[in-house]
């Protein structure tokens, strides 16, 4: 039995087990997270979406482009929903896999559930196995994968989609393998989309969504893939790491489902920035600090949080979401780092930019050694009156070790949905639909239109 067959068999063994209700509850939260960030994401770059549609003139169809009052063909809707779901960099993910999990999966699974009349329970099962696939693959190849310049959301996300759809639509084991093999061939995504003001990071999520569903369609058409796309000298693992000796991890890593390991973001920025943001928010509130009080801010954190995230110049909102100095500055000025703190107006705000210049960021070997199990930042603020204030955050809000409360999660959901132009009544109905496990997909998509 080759490496790919072993991996698919391990997923099948997991898929055949009853899923605990606590895990299903977590999957509902993941779906709500996806819906609210996608609705808000569509609003956040509406001008670009309108320009895209004007140039591309996408054909109308039966599938909802969430938050856009537009219906399109299946692949167009899948792409745009994947793009919008990651537009704000507010969607869920894991530190260990260095991957955003939910956006590519839900962008494909929801319209297919509508098309094929799948039950809500069937959807949740497919989501959970899809998360497991994407995360396990990412965990196996990180951080070498990232070091080589790959974005796991685009690469491993594509693989998760192929497996998730295969369970949603009851593929045979051979069809599942062919879909997975095709996904291995098509998986791609580069990380330089984070750098120098680039706004293409969401493109990796949208592209993964399209490639994932295309892999499934190729398999159903009868195209055969390599019998072991993961293994051998030209397989996925070697190609994505440059290493022939990668040990493929097993699903249910350390005894918990991947979806239980996912974070929910309280701040609208790269997750690597959150420990520093949270420390500064705490210090601002507890010491009544303002921007005028600050002489300097020193931040020590793990290497991956410093690398490509220590810039003060933020030419675009996308760049601001990747900048520790900018994010710490808005945390000082506003006491938060939500949607509006990363606006076009704020990235040229002289008070924020001057505060950002007072921030120095350093990688700390001890904090790097404990990553990703612990994601830490130590912040030292020197005030103009000579005080030295220090605070450390190890598990920022939203991690499984420090989850959002139900009230915090609901407030975040409502804020994002309302930002996207929906009413409070619509937000309530969307939330209840998911919490109640309803399978009337036409009703849901009417609310999301």
What does this structure look like?
By secondary structure, the chain is of the alpha+beta class. The chain has helices at about 5-15, 20-45, 45-55, 75-85, 100-115, 120-140, 145, 150-170, 175-185, 200-220, 235-240, 260, 275-285, 305, 315-320, 325-335, 350-355, 365-370, 405-420, 425-435, 440-449; strands at about 65, 70, 295-300, 360-365, 375-385, 390-395. The strands form two sheets. It has a four-stranded mixed β-sheet with strand order 4-3-5-6. A two-stranded antiparallel ribbon has the order 1-2. Strand 1 and strand 2 (about 70) form a beta hairpin. Helix 5 (about 100-115) runs parallel beside helix 8 (about 150-170). The longest helix has 24 residues, at about 20-45.
Uncertain regions spanning at least 5 consecutive residues:
none
Mean pLDDT: 96
Number of strands: 6
What general outline do the C-alpha atoms trace?
globular
Label this structure with key terms.
449 residues, alpha+beta, two-stranded antiparallel ribbon, 21 helices, globular
Strand-helix topology:
Elements: H1 3-15, H2 21-44, H3 46-56, E1 63-65, E2 70-72, H4 74-85, H5 102-116, H6 120-141, H7 144-147, H8 152-168, H9 173-186, H10 201-220, H11 236-241, H12 258-261, H13 274-287, E3 294-301, H14 303-306, H15 317-320, H16 324-334, H17 350-356, E4 359-363, H18 365-370, E5 377-383, E6 388-393, H19 406-419, H20 424-435, H21 441-448
Parallel strand pairs: 3-4
Antiparallel strand pairs: 1-2, 3-5, 5-6
Helix pairs in contact: 2-4, 2-6, 2-19, 2-20, 4-5, 4-10, 5-6, 5-8, 5-10, 6-8, 8-9, 8-10, 9-10, 13-16, 16-17, 19-20
